[in-house]
Amino acid sequence: MAGRAADRDHRRHPARGRALTVRCAQCLVLGDTVQVALEVGGEATLHFNVPVHVARRNGVEPGARLRVSLLSEGIHLMRPRSHQ
Questions:
Q1: Cross-strand bridge partners of residue 46
Q2: Is 13 helix (H, G, I), strand (E, B) or coil?
Q3: CA distance 65 to 59
């Protein structure tokens, strides 16, 4: 029961971070995890995994427009791949 109360509190007070409006480009269910690819402004793609119940609760499905909040400590920039 404590988990549900914490979950409701999280929805009322989203985590501090950088909020973005994105489009879900792709979802792949692998057991109890969903691999998600989100398009950001048509220029970049964010990839991550979430539990299936979190994806369902938040309406994560291909084509869906979503609002996500990125925690600063969870952002890791990577150099672009060389096309040589």
A1: 38
A2: coil
A3: 9
